[in-house]
Amino acid sequence: MNKAKICLNTQTPLVQFLSQIKTNDAQNPTTPDLSSLVEGVDFQYSTGGVTRMVYPLISQMIRDGTISDAHWISLNSSGPESIKANGITFHNVILQKDRLKNYGVIKEAIWGTVHGINGTTNSNDIFWSDDFADYAFYNRYSAELMKKLDNEHDFDIFYIHDFQQLPVGHMLNTLKPKVYRWHIPFDKSMIPDEWRELLATYFNSYDVIIVSSGKYLDSLKALGFKGQVKKIYPYVNPNDYSVPSAMEIMAVSQKLGIREKDEIVLIVARMDPMKAQDRAILAFASIAKAFPSLKLVCVGNGSFSSSTQGANSKSALWRKKLEDLTKKLELQDRVIFAGHLSQNELDAMYERCSFTMLPSVNEGFGLVVVESWIHHKAALVTERAGVADLIEDEKNGMLYDPENVELCAKKMSKLLVEKELARKMGNQGHKTSKLCSIDAGLKAEREVIEKLLE
Amino acid sequence: MIKLNFAEIFDPLATAGIIVLLTWLIARSTSVIIGRLMSGSKPLAAAQAKRLSWILVWAIGAILAIEQLGVRSDILLLVVGLFGAGVLVGLRVPLENFGAKYFSDIYVPFKVGDSILVSNYSGKVVEINSMCTILLSDKDNQLVSIPNSILVREVVTNSTPQAWKELTIPIAIGNSIDLATFESEVLKSVNKLKLRLDKRFPPVLTTKSRSAQSTDLSLTVMIRSPEERDALANEINKRVAEIIQRMQGAKKSD
Fold it and tell me: Which residue of chain A has the CA closest to B218?
């Protein structure tokens, strides 16, 4: 097979810039190389799938010679027009503030509806709103940039990621192969009638769609998608996770006010209503008296892009709501909001906890469960998460209906009382985690791309 | 020794140059005037009328400029005329089909992917080119080629489910217009008509083809009442034409 040229599109950029990067002079070329910048000073890597999945995939394919040229387009409100890293050229799409805000409104509405958390808000009409015109603007702008780059580089394949970029395939107007990865849940019954035709039009512009769970695959077909659907689990690199020393664990525990005798249940999730930390707190409240040294630690803050920032951001408002709930339940000393933790600190908390929870109302997959398994820790997971595909109840984890707080509390108790069962589930989970290892994921994604390039 | 008379050489050249410049100015103004006059018409028809006027103005300008350089225009016109007549006679059928494509694009309601019945042939439209429309026949999966001239002469039945609902507006925009901004403006403008449109099918703008000068697009909406089809087509055409004009104006003032 000849070496291929690939064009990628994600909303989230690989890196976010922390300082003004000088370009356009002899010392500072128009397209600077990331290696000439300092991590933590000039830039930081974005959290999530872009850094953990997409970047390693493309880097590996460049290293082994499958790909000769890669261009990656994403939204980035600051920084130079383009940068280079490991043979990949990153192109930044900059949106005006008002367009970005309106784009965010549609993004949140789609996200909320697909996850079933829009409450009383009616999102059925969003595709007829002026905000949608700006969502379309962002997608068309990205597609036009991809088209321009295609004219210059003659790509062999386009790889587009996630719901924010769904219209790009249709807007690209190319006969070249297009792969699309849908990262969030997809349950046809959650999709309003008013959305179905447009979504089907957009989906049908792709040759292959990759989803994270078997149930999403069936829903896509039921919506009328005529192309190929592949199920590939999201993946992580087990080497990115370390076993922290006792000193490191103690240091993080002290930082968070955790005593030696405390028993810990850990939730690692963005501050977002969809993550349903409130339901976990309610379940925790009902068993708190029976386990007086038990503490619930919630790790995580906001997302890369949100329609509002600062104190009024979705994440800040949700955290405030959770803090109010703990006050009301008089659990201020028992529920810890840790905010963002570094990877080492997070590893320490995984080691320190008894088990982890993923209480999400709905969840595309839930890689934190895999992270928990890597640390040999059992996970209590809602059956609506994509990762539930991999869980055999009481074998490598426990499942429950997110609406049933009482059942959640019962299962929490069981994991706290039957420690041997929890230990066995953690060890079994460790074996299951190999299905979501970077090697397994890259192999599966490579097969999809290589088949289209044959 | 040959004496060069510079005035004899440069005067006709200068005059020809001035004519070319004037032709350019007239071609541009004519294009603007036609754009304004046809602002209520279908954008594709307006774009094609502009193209035609541009060709005509330049043809006249070129003849006048050539005449300044000493070439007799009556002979030139005779040659062009004879050549044109020859072309018309020799290529009558292809030209008829080519011309019909202009009208069928704008006025015959079907597109690639639709199922149509014409001259006892029924099938799915798989290609529309400048000479003919190609159907994949329902009966035997054979390719049937229908000359475009037939499509404007004979009755065409579009049997695609809900074909009556679908309204496709062909649009051509110059490449000086930013497509992302144009799409955003069109969507906002068409949203104002949503009461008359089927809410399950939001407007979709599709890129059809691109050239160095322009991009051909189609805007698809679904109407609620068949009797409003023509009125809606006119209204959307008007709105699209206004957006094109506004964006072209803004571009010039930049």
Answer: A171
Look up the CATH number of domain B107-158: 2.30.30.60
| Rounded Cα distance, B246 and B254, in Å | 12
H or E, element range at A337? strand A335-339
Same domain, yes or no: A231 and A243: no
pTM of the model: 0.79
The values of phi and psi at residue A288, to 5°, are -60, -40
Q: What is the mean pLDDT of chain A?
A: 91
Same domain, A301 and A160: no
Give the pLDDT confidence of A317-338 residue by residue, as tens digits: 999 999 999 999 999 999 999 9
CATH assignment at residue A335: 3.40.50.2000
Q: Are residues A196 and A275 in the same domain?
A: no
* ipTM of this complex prediction, to 2 decimal places: 0.82
Judged by CB atoms closer than 8 Å, whether chains meet at A137 and B181 is answered as yes
Structure tokens at A173: 């107007």
Residue B43 near residue B240, CB atoms below 8 Å: yes
A8 is written with which tokens? Answer: 């990628």
Query: What's the Cα-to-Cα distance from A285 to each of A326, A418, B238, rounded to whole Å?
Result: 9, 20, 63
Structure tokens at B145: 């080629």
Residue A454: what residue type?
A: E
Instruction: Calculate how close chain A gets to B215, using CA atoms only, in Å.
Output: 12
Alpha carbon distance B222, B198 (integer Å): 5
Residues of A in contact with B207 (CB under 8 A): 171, 173
Block means of pLDDT (10 residues each) for chain B, 254 residues, are 67 87 89 76 73 85 83 76 78 72 68 88 89 88 89 86 86 93 97 94 93 91 92 93 89 68
Tokens of A357: 């929870």
Q: Dihedral, CA atoms, A168, A172, A176, A182, nearest 10 degrees?
A: 0
Quick check: A266 pLDDT over 80? yes
Q: Where are the beta strands (DSSP E) in chain B?
A: 115-118, 121-128, 132-137, 143-147, 156-158, 166-174, 204-210, 214-222
Fold classification of B166-253 (topology level): Alpha-Beta Plaits (3.30.70)
Tell me which residue of B181, B39, B66 sits closest to A136, measured CA to CA. Answer: B181
Q: Å from B146 to nearest chain A CA?
A: 25
Contacts for B116 with CB less than 8 Å, ≥ 6 apart = B110, B122, B123, B125, B135, B156, B157, B158, B159, B160
Look at the block and give the residue holding tokens 């009482």.
A406
Best probe of the A interface among B168, B171, B185, B187, by most A CBs < 10 A, is: B187
- DSSP codes, B134-168: EEEETTT--EEEEEHHHHHHS-EEE-STTTTTEEE
Q: Where are the beta strands (DSSP E) in A190-249?
A: 208-211, 228-231
